[in-house]
Amino acid sequence: MTISDPISYECVSETGSTNSDLLERIRKEGLSHTVVLRALRQTQGRGTRGRTWSGNVDCLMFSVAIPIGNNLQIMSGITLAIGAHVVLALRKRGINAEVKWPNDILLNGKKLAGILVESAKGPNHQYSLVIGIGFNLKTQNCSSDYGHASLSDVGLPTMDFDAQYWLSILVDGILESVREVNNCGLGPTVALWDKIMAYKNQVVLIFEEEEAPYEATLVGIDSKGHLLVRSDNGIKTLISGTISLRLKK
């Protein structure tokens, strides 16, 4: 699999969900090359675990569809790699973001961006990834299910809020993460994660399905991208995508 040109960029004034639009297109028509779909307004944006994300021009909302053929192994850990590369791209530009497992992007402990990774199969039985991002440019009129941050919080006098600029930065980060996992596996992500992980060595509340919340200390991730926490019973490996965590206050 080669992640390269051509890339088609599309922009619509309003839609329900850019992820849903691309998933439907893939199922009906397949996908021959990478497509980036941006919406100026999104009315039914979806996040992980049923959360929502909506906003207007103060939020950058887009999805990237990438054909991956039958290489389903790339799905293992790709969510972590995308979050890590988004943080890396921001840090290279002076924004001290962190990633909260599995891929929420935080700034000063609040949510700066949300990422949703999905996949679909086309009529030719070839698969494509669809990666949706909601990224807060300015505080006004941006919304998520919990406290949020924006680039306007950074306070850099030269900060540029141009959406097209940040779209290019984030798309490049996404494509690089997919190339990296395809070529090198999850090893580089695990090494990077140790430097950019939110709440590392701090006590958090862990929420698992059908279990009472419990306290644990975040340790890191293992070679497969599973979350490692330390509780009174020792090190525990968390695998399920239905797990969530919050910093204990």
Report the biggest beta sheet as strand number plus sense, adding barrel if it closes: 7 strands, mixed
Mean pLDDT: 87
Radius of gyration (CA) equals 18 Å
Helix proportion of residues, in percent?
10-25%
Structural class: alpha+beta
**How many distinct beta strands?**
14
Which word captures the global form? globular
> Total number of helical segments?
4
The name of the CATH topology of the largest domain is BirA Bifunctional Protein, domain 2
Q: What fraction strand?
A: 25-35%
CATH class category of the largest domain = Alpha Beta
CATH superfamily annotation of the largest domain: Bira Bifunctional Protein, Domain 2
* Helix and strand pattern: EHEEEHEEEEEHHEEEEE
The tally of domains stands at 2
The separation of the N and C termini measures 45 Å
| Major β-sheet strand ordering | 1-2-4-8-7-6-5
Pfam family, one: BPL_LplA_LipB
InterPro entries: aa-tRNA-synth_II/BPL/LPL, Biotin_CoA_COase_ligase, BPL_C, BPL_LPL_catalytic, Transcriptional_repressor_C
Domain BPL/LPL catalytic: 1-182
Keywords: ATP-binding, Biotin, Ligase, Nucleotide-binding
